[in-house]
Specification:
Layout (H helix, E strand, L loop, with lengths): L7 H12 L3 H11 L14 E7 L9 E4 L7 H15 L15 H25 L8 H16 L2 H15 L2 E2 L4 E2 L5 E2 L4 E2 L6 E4 L6 H10 L3 H18 E4 L9 E4 L2 E4 L6 E5 L11 H18 L2 H19 L7 E2 L5 E2 L21 H21 L2 H22 L5 E7 L5 E7 L29 E3 H16 L4
Helix pairs in contact: 1-12, 1-13, 2-3, 3-4, 3-5, 3-13, 4-5, 4-6, 5-6, 6-7, 7-8, 7-9, 9-10, 9-11, 10-11, 11-12, 11-13
InterPro entries: 6-hairpin_glycosidase_sf, 6hp_glycosidase-like_sf, UG_Glycosaminoglycan_Hydrolase
Keywords: Glycosidase, Hydrolase
Organism: Metarhizium guizhouense (strain ARSEF 977)
Length: 482
């Protein structure tokens, strides 16, 4: 490894800045649950969930909420459970404040005591969502929170809901197409798929819902769930991936991705290859590429199928190549004269670039970084030291540049208050009253900038950018890298 390679010290620096005192450890809990309720669970399940945080306009800095049955509803509870996981498994990294003395033992313990109740309040609606068979996103909905609830507490209800969700997802599998249907319909200014007869729609995002099938399949010894996940992963290889010429320094065959494939439900033949959220049908939408990296890495970890591992590596190679070849305008000079930002990916690798303000997607970067960390572990286990080192290097570079460019710097501090009944609770206060409040952890996400939608969303905080940001830190700790 060269002098620019990540080290354990750099991993520690990431955890200290991103996962120590302040926002990641406390802000999501206090901002969204309310400091007045931190001492106990209030038992009231939410009817809507945080999704985006605008960076401008009248609601700048405040979460915009979506209905409780929207596909992103699982990521905020998942973020809370990431914090709970950190407090239980890695207490030395929970509310670590760099010895600045701002977090007392008492306030830390009060926060820990309240976390599980807060997590379960936010996760309660997810149990009912597990029964949904009208969508493929049940993995995104239930796994981030309910898997951790089971693993940290042994709650059988959560494991049973995971099984229910896996069966719901499996019900969308078509044996003739050898794939799981992602969407029953898709209508925008260009597309008009309104029935299953008009399209069997499969998107690259589906790769990250397969983990649900493998997890439930192995827990309950249901080989059919495992087989469906494995078959779908192989189908996506042939329907969504494009082999591209390798760039200099590539270690693996490179692949780019289509976002959407419309299959014949009777034969599995590809009828169309399209995009819904990318710039164009033939472009590479960066978050779609990231879903592929993470999904294939997860699938390999369950199956140990070398084809799935090489696929994940090829997708990651292309993601890296496109960041490296991005125009110079993606780099931003910092106060010390160094440059950052190259490894916060553009929202679409082939879209026109505004040289004054390149449009990025921090969520794509953090999803890809998680996938690359999984690849580091998988390749280390197979003895591929060179490949493992490469993906670790870029995973940390993505995280570092995301912190440099996207991390919302306002922080909270914890204080102890005693009510009239002598009951103590931890209360959150702004650490700097002059700093503009921003309720998400990361800025510069792009939910959807495709030109065929009347409403386009860019340059905002995004709940799943935050989730994968938090998960990345926990993965570093699990791997002993910080």
């Amino acid at each position: 490894m060269g002098s620019n390679e990540p080290t354990t010290a750099q991993g520690n620096a990431f955890c200290t800045k991103a996962y120590g005192y302040g926002k990641p450890a406390a802000k999501p809990v206090f901002r969204q649950h309310g400091p007045e309720n931190m001492e106990d669970s209030n038992g009231n399940p939410p009817d809507e969930f945080p999704e985006t945080v605008p960076q401008s306009g009248k609601n700048s800095g405040r979460y915009v909420y979506r209905e409780a049955d929207f596909w992103t509803c699982g990521f905020f509870p998942g973020s809370l459970y990431c914090i709970l996981e950190r407090s239980v498994k890695y207490p030395e990294h929970f509310l670590a404040d760099g010895n600045q003395g701002r977090v007392s033992v008492q306030s830390c313990q009060l926060l820990k005591q309240s976390l599980l109740g807060v997590c379960r309040d936010w996760a309660q609606p997810l149990h009912q969502m597990a029964y949904r068979t009208d969508m493929h996103d049940v993995g995104f909905i239930v796994e981030p929170a309910l898997r951790r609830d089971y693993e940290l507490t042994g709650n059988i209800q959560s494991l049973n809901s995971i099984l229910t969700a896996a069966k719901s997802l499996a019900s969308r599998y078509n044996d003739k197409a050898k794939a799981i249907c992602s969407w029953d319909q898709m209508v925008n200014n260009r597309l008009n798929f309104t029935t299953k007869d008009s399209g069997f729609l499969v998107i690259i995002d589906s790769m990250c819902n397969l983990d649900l099938l493998f997890y439930a399949g192995h827990h309950f010894k249901l080989q059919r769930l495992i087989d469906i996940g494995t078959t779908h992963a192989h189908t996506i290889r042939s329907t969504h991936l494009r082999q591209v010429p390798n760039c200099e320094g590539a270690l693996y065959t490179q692949y780019s991705t289509y976002h959407l494939a419309n299959l014949c439900p009777h034969t599995g033949k590809v009828l169309q290859k399209l995009t819904v959220q990318g710039y164009s049908d033939e472009s590479t939408w960066s978050r779609g590429q990231a879903w592929g990296i993470l999904g294939y890495a997860q699938s390999y970890n369950w199956t140990k199928d070398p084809i799935l591992l090489s696929t994940a590596c090829g997708l990651a190679e292309y993601f890296i190549a496109r960041m490296e070849s991005a125009p110079a305008c993606v780099e931003v000079e910092q106060q010390d004269g160094s440059k950052t930002g190259r490894y916060v990916p553009l929202w679409d690798f082939d879209a026109p670039v505004d040289e004054k303000d390149p449009l990025r997607d921090s969520s794509a970067g953090m999803i890809a970084a998680n996938g690359m960390l999984l690849l580091h572990g998988a390749l280390t286990a197979t003895g591929d030291v060179k490949g493992a080192a490469k993906f670790l290097r870029y995973a940390v570079l993505i995280a570092k540049h995301t912190l440099d460019l996207c991390f919302a710097t306002d922080q909270l501090k914890l204080s102890i208050q005693t009510d009239k009944d002598d009951k103590t609770k931890a209360v959150a206060e702004s650490a700097d009253a002059s700093a503009p409040s921003f309720e998400a952890l990361l800025r510069r996400a792009t939910a959807n900038f495709n030109g065929n939608f009347p409403d386009r969303y860019s340059n905002h905080g995004l709940v799943y950018a935050d989730y994968y940001f938090l998960e990345f830190g926990n993965r570093l700790l699990q791997a002993g890298l910080c």
